[in-house]
Structures are given as C-alpha cells and as structure tokens.
C-alpha cells in the first residue's frame, strides 16, 4: 500500500511521534492529537474513508497510554458499515478498545450475529476474530449455535477461526462445548491440516478435563502423528525441514495425557514414539523440542523398558552438550526419567554434578533439583555436600529455603549414620537456622533421646558424641536460635556424659549462663536455656551463684513463660529431693503416669471435711436435693453458661417536630434553673 489514501495530518502524527525525544514531548503531541480527533469526530456526515483514519489515529493514542474512550462508540458504529474494509477496521478497533465486560458490548452482539451468518466469508472471519477476543459468559448462548454451524463452512479459514472460538468457549463454559463433542471430533478429520491442527488445542483441553471420554481417539491421534512424520503434509508446514513440528508437539502432549496409567492405550503409542524420536534427531533446535516432548510422553504413559532406554540415551547427549539450553533440556528430561526409574540416571551422575559449575543460574537450580531426585544411600554424602556448598554461597532466600528443605529431607531419609546426621543438621542450623522448621529440631532431639534402639552402648556413645559436639559449638559467639535450643536441650539432659578435658558440670552451667545474655530473635530460646540450667542444678545439686542470679533476674521478664520457669525454680530450690524427682536424668522418653482419680488429694479432702467443709455434690445429687428440699432453681444451677442471645440493634432516632424541639429547650432551661 502506498499510503496515498491517508491524510497529511496522519503522516505528520506518525513522524512527530517517531522524532519525539522524551516522554513529555510525546505526551504533548498525543494530547494535541486527541483534541483534534474530538473536533473531527463531532462533525456531521463523516465519510467512511475519514472515519477509518480517525480510528487508526485513536488506536495510536490508546497504544501510547492515553484515553481515547470518546472514539469507542464510533468504532462500534464502524462495524455496521456495509463497506468491507470499513467493517474490518471497526472490528479491529473494537478488539483493541473494548473488553469482554464493556458496556458497549451490548451494541456489538447483534452485529456479530448478523455477520456470522453473512455469505461473505471475510465478514464472517472478522466477526469470529472479535468473538475470540470479546466473548463473555452472557454472549455464549446467543453466539455459540452460529459458531458451531460454521465448523462445516466451505472456507477453511472460517472453519479454523470457528474452532478457535470453540476453544475460547471451552475456557469459559466447558459444558457448552462438551454438549457438541461429536461435532468437534469431526473437525479432527478436516481435509485442511491447519483446521485439524487448530482442533488439537480444544481436544487437548477436553482430554485434560475428561481423559476417559477421549481414550477412543488414541488410534486417530497416532495415525495423524504417523502421517506427519512421514511428510504427508504439504511442505508449507515444514520448519527447518521438520514436518509440522508444532502439531507433533501438541499430539505428543495429548498422547501423554491419554496414556497415563493405561497399558492398552500406551501400547498403541510405543512404535510411533520410537519412530518420532528417530526422525526428529536432525540436529536442529525444533527437532530437540520434539525429542524432549517424546521423553515427557514416555515418562508419563505406561512404562516400556526399551523406550525408557532410548529416552535416556537421547537425554544424555543433551546433558553433555556445550549449549546451555540443551543442557537445561537434558537436566529437565533426566529428572522426569528418574521419577520412573532412578537406575537410568546412575551413569550420568558426574555429568550432572558438572552442571553445577555452570554460570547459568537457572541451569544450576534445575541441576540441584535433579540431584535431589537422584539421591540414594550410596551417593547421599556427595549430594548433600554439594547442596550445602550452595546453601553457604547463595543469597537468594527462596533458593536457600528450598535447599534447607532438600538437605533436611535427604539427611532424614538416607543418613549413613547418626553422627553424620547430627553434623549435617548442625551445619544447616548454623547457615540457615531461621529457615528450618521446628519439627526438624524436634526430630533431632528425639533421635538423641531414643537412639537407634538396637544397642544401648551404641546409643550411649552417640549421646556422648552429641554432647561433645554441642559443647564445642556453644563456644562460638553467634549461633542461630534453633541451634541454641537444641544445644540447651541436649546439655540439659546429658551434660554428665561430656568427655572433653577441662569441662565440668560447673563449666557447662557457666557456658549456658553466658549464652542467656546473647540477643535472640525467638523469645522462647531463653526458656530452653533456663530449663537446661534447672536440670543441671536439680540433677547434680549444683550450686552456681551465677546461674541462680541469672535465673532470678528473669523473674521480671516480659515473657510469661520465662517468668513461670524462674518462679518454679525458686520453689523447687527449697526442696532438692523434689527438684531431682521433677527433673530426672534421661527421662524425656518415659511415659508420665497420670493419676486421673487424684487419689493423692484424699488426705487433704478428709482434713477439710473434718474441719467442717461441705462435701462435693455432682449435678444429679444437686437436682435430687432441690426436689426434696424445695431449693430454688437458681441455687442449684451453679454451672456458668454463655448467653448467645444477640443484643438488640439500635433504633433509628426519630426527628422531632419544631414545636417539640422548643419544648425540649424549655425543659432544659427549667432543668438548668433547678440545678
């Protein structure tokens, strides 16, 4: 197009926008243009040629962030024109100006219905384009019957846009499309490949929502994929000599959905998947995309040993590639194969570890995830060391949280021995204590308390190791809250097992006392330390003036729990025997005998009865007493109850008449005189 039909004003607008050197200069040009457009559009009898240009100029204003809502109604009117070019401009500007819930959509529905039934396929295509963009829930009942009729239109462009509109309907109201499922299936056999390809999108959505209803289409999908791989489609669909790669990817995606946990359906796919991977291996990127989609399909359908080996061999070439994108593809594909059978990833462990040295941050994170999936009891030490290294060097809070979760999970599942588990958890506590959930610390405390449960001497040796380890850690100036809590609990329970030279119970109590004065983020951490001191003093009869002074100083703490512990210490300190009984050694796993009948209070109750106290009566005894002695009901029902009756809402005050207000003023005057 030469542009001779456009005015000089339009060319000046485009030129000035292109030559503007700042946003302020551009805004000034558009504001002036909007003023000119308002003046032009207010004139009567505007020709269709001029209106088309004005709408395009209004689109420029909208695209550059200015309000051109004054032109919306003119865009809707332009769709009513009989001139085909003007109508197309009208639909184009409506698609750009309006949204599905705009108030002017009511004026557009009738025009859409009329154009969808037009004999001119260009008008039909324009209307269908607007349907895909602007259709809403209220429009579907009025529009959908006309769109479904167009699925059998003689023009392939109309059929293609109609199936795209059906896809839009399915996203809004799936039921409206499922009722016409048979009609949509016929589009899969359309003689035009572009129409067939467009139908794959809505059929994929239907397969995701209702897989069982689409199982019978598996042979059809396999047949179509076979025809594509054998180059039976026109050359127009080739991309870098690869036949219709986007259709292949969509078909493989549908097959992976329909073959999940279905052996019969999967058996139809094995041969074509193998052939598809063989033909796609041509050294171009789009071929790699098809291979990757084949790998995804193979890992989702009912497993086949030969296909899995073929997938693993193709993925291994991706991982060893120098191309970052192919390595990322290989790591992602291998992660999916590992979910089916981890044995296929064993030979690629070192190559995967090398990917951690890649400068690409995305590839590095994907590799960490793959290492987590590949971990087993034989390689857990190496993998956890790699994860810990990245935890130490990373500053991304999201990545650190993910690494903490992975290291914790692997240590609990595959720890070679208890000592390694303790050291690993201590490292995690030191590096990211604020990201560790409390359950992890509880699991570690329970392991120290219970041990392996097989050999008591081995359990005792493990506790000695834990005590010595935490004594060394306690000397560090800064520790995370959760690590201090674990240290306090272990030393409070098993401090007597310490075998490090120069450490007595008094020294351990002094270390804990010094630690209390450190700043903590979690207020409960000091409670752990105070409890540890209570246990040391109670179990060993320790007389540490420093520890006792610190405990007494926290009686005025704002933490009620810490106050309670300190006051309990003062009471228990008066009876050392009771203190040893309340805080016994290594009794955290013992069951507490609860006396539900409170028999230990019988002597106290008997004493009070002898002194004249009234015996307790239950509800039935009180009711019987009320009947025999005519006791008022209020005296019997002493059990408190809640009143669920709502309060009465405030009433709206009524406006007093004028004479009434005068009387009120007189009354207030009399009242003041009386006062």
Automatic annotation (TrEMBL):
Compartments (UniProt record): Endomembrane system
Annotated keywords: Golgi apparatus, Membrane, Protein transport, Transport
Domain of life of the source: Eukaryota
Domain annotation Clathrin/coatomer adaptor adaptin-like N-terminal: ranges: 28-574
Chain residue ranges for the region called Disordered: 617-643
InterPro entries named among the record's database cross-references: Adaptor_Complx_Large_Subunit, AP4_complex_esu, ARM-like, ARM-type_fold, Clathrin/coatomer_adapt-like_N
Quaternary structure note: Adaptor protein complex 4 (AP-4) is a heterotetramer composed of two large adaptins, a medium adaptin and a small adaptin.
Similarity field: Belongs to the adaptor complexes large subunit family.
Described function: Subunit of novel type of clathrin- or non-clathrin-associated protein coat involved in targeting proteins from the trans-Golgi network (TGN) to the endosomal-lysosomal system.
PANTHER family: ADAPTIN, ALPHA/GAMMA/EPSILON (PTHR22780)
Protein name (Swiss-Prot/TrEMBL): AP-4 complex subunit epsilon
Species whose genome carries this gene: Durusdinium trenchii
High-level lineage: Eukaryota, Sar, Alveolata, Dinophyceae, Suessiales
């Amino acid at each position: 197009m030469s542009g001779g039909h456009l005015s000089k004003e339009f060319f000046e607008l485009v030129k000035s926008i292109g030559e503007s050197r700042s946003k302020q200069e551009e805004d000034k040009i558009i504001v002036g243009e909007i003023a000119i457009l308002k003046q032009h559009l207010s004139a009567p009898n505007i020709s269709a040629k001029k209106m088309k240009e004005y709408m395009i100029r209004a689109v420029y204003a909208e695209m550059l962030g200015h309000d051109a809502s004054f032109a919306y109604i003119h865009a809707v009117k332009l769709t009513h024109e009989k001139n085909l070019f003007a109508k197309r401009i009208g639909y184009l500007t409506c698609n750009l100006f309006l949204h599905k819930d705009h108030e002017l959509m009511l004026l557009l529905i009738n025009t859409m219905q009329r154009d969808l039934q037009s004999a001119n396929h260009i008008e039909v295509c324009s209307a269908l384009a607007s349907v895909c963009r602007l259709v809403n829930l209220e429009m579907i009942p009025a529009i959908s019957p006309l769109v479904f009729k167009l699925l059998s239109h003689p023009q392939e462009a109309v059929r293609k846009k109609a199936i795209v509109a059906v896809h839009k309907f399915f996203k809004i109201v799936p039921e409206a499309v499922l009722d016409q499922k048979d009609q949509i299936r016929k589009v899969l056999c359309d003689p035009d490949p572009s129409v067939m390809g467009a139908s794959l999108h809505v059929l994929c959505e239907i397969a995701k929502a209702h897989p069982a209803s689409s199982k019978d289409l598996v042979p059809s999908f396999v047949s179509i994929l076979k025809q594509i791989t054998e180059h039976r489609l026109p050359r127009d669909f080739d991309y870098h000599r690869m036949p219709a790669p986007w259709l292949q990817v969509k078909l493989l995606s549908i097959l992976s959905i329909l073959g999940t946990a279905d052996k019969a359906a999967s058996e139809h796919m094995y041969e074509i998947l193998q052939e598809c991977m063989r033909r796609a291996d041509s050294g171009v990127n789009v071929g790699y995309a098809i291979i990757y989609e084949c790998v995804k399909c193979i890992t989702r359908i009912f497993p086949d040993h030969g296909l899995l080996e073929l997938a693993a061999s193709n993925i291994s070439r991706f991982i060893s590639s120098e191309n970052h994108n192919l390595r990322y593809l290989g790591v992602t594909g291998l992660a999916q194969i590992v979910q089916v059978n981890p044995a296929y990833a064993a030979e690629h462990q070192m190559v995967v570890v090398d990917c951690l040295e890649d400068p690409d941050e995305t590839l590095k994170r994907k590799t960490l995830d793959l290492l987590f999936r590949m971990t087993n009891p034989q390689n857990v030490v190496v993998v956890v060391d790699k994860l810990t290294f990245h935890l130490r060097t990373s500053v991304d809070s999201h990545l650190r949280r993910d690494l903490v979760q992975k290291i914790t999970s692997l240590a609990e599942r595959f720890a070679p021995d208890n000592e390694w588990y303790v050291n690993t958890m201590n490292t995690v506590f030191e590096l990211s204590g604020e990201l560790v959930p409390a359950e992890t610390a509880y699991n570690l405390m329970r392991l120290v308390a219970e041990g392996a449960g097989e050999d008591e001497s081995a359990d005792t040796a493990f506790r000695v190791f834990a005590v010595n380890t935490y004594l060394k850690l306690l000397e560090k100036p800064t520790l995370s809250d959760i690590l201090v809590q674990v240290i306090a609990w272990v030393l409070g329970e098993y401090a007597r097992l310490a075998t490090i030279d120069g450490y007595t119970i008094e020294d351990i109590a002094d270390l804990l006392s010094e630690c209390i004065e450190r700043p903590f983020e979690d207020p409960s951490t000091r409670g752990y330390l105070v409890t540890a001191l209570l246990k040391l003093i109670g179990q060993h009869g320790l007389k540490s003036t420093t520890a006792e002074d610190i405990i007494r100083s926290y009686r005025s703490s704002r933490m009620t729990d810490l106050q309670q512990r300190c006051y309990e210490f003062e009471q228990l300190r008066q009876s050392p025997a009771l203190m040893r009984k309340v805080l016994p050694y290594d009794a955290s796993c013992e069951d507490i005998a609860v006396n539900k009948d409170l028999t230990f209070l019988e002597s106290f109750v008997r004493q009070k009865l002898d002194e004249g106290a009234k015996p307790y009566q239950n509800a039935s005894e009180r009711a019987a007493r009320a009947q025999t002695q005519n006791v008022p009901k209020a005296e019997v029902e002493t059990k408190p109850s809640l009143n669920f009756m709502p309060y009465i809402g405030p009433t709206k005050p009524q406006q007093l008449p004028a004479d009434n207000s005068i009387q009120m003023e007189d009354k207030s005057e009399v009242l003041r005189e009386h006062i």
